[in-house]
Amino acid sequence: MLDTIFGLPVHPLIVHATTVVVPAAAVTVLLSAVWPRFRRWAAWMPLALSVLAVVLTPLSTESGESLERHVEHSDLIETHSQLAEGLLPWVIGLGAAAVLLFVVARGERRAVPTVALSASAADPTDETPARTSLVPRWLLVAGAVVGLVAALGTTVQVVRIGHSGAQAAWSDSVSQTPPPASGDDGN
To answer: What whole-number distance in Å separates Cα of residue 162 and Cα of residue 80?
Structure first.
């Protein structure tokens, strides 16, 4: 794998893409799981973002392992690395949910028009068109449950990984003691 671009480590570049795409995928899958109108409108977007997240996650892990070989070992980096290894199963679950919800959305958009009696008590002869979905209800329930769990797990894991990575990157650079007050010349 490519370790550097223009002398800079690849890991921060890939990780920034991952930290945008993975939460975006989680949000779109979550919304698709609980909001039918969004699910029909978004169509392929949650699926595309989830597939991109599945691709970026191992690239981030690989580039991180490459960078880890070039920096001094620390417990913070080890913790970050271990947490990062746990993201891929969550992202795969997110992708599976996105596939199920995409199938549901397609079925909802291609629903069969039927005629149902209106709920209007004023005119009982008034008929309004309804649509009967071609997708089994269990598929929607499975997609919604897997989507909710995967979106929550993915989000929590990304926050934990990001926090540990920031600690590893900045622990030596940021002092815990405040700078001297202005006007204090140290005498």
So the answer is: 8
> What's the pTM value of the predicted model, to 2 decimals?
0.78
Per-residue confidence of the chain (187 residues) as pLDDT tens digits? 677 788 788 888 899 999 999 999 999 999 999 999 999 899 999 999 999 999 999 999 999 888 888 888 888 889 999 999 999 999 999 999 999 999 998 888 776 565 554 455 555 554 545 555 677 889 989 999 999 999 999 999 999 999 999 898 887 654 455 556 665 555 5
Q: Retrieve residue 89's tokens.
A: 């199963």
144 touches 104 (CB < 8 A): no
Q: Report the first-to-last Cα separation within the chain, whole angstroms.
A: 53
Got the DSSP string for the chain?
Answer: ---EETTEEHHHHHHHHHHHHHHHHHHHHHHHHH-HHHHHHHTTHHHHHHHHHHHHHHHHHHHHHHHHTTS---HHHHHHHHHHHTHHHHHHHHHHHHHHHHHHHHHHHTPEEEEEE-S-SS-TT-EEEEEE-SS-HHHHHHHHHHHHHHHHHHHHHHHHHHHHHHHHHHTTTS-SSPPPPTT----
Asked if residue 26 lies in contact with residue 154, where contact means CB atoms within 8 angstroms, the answer is yes
Amino acid letter for position 164: S
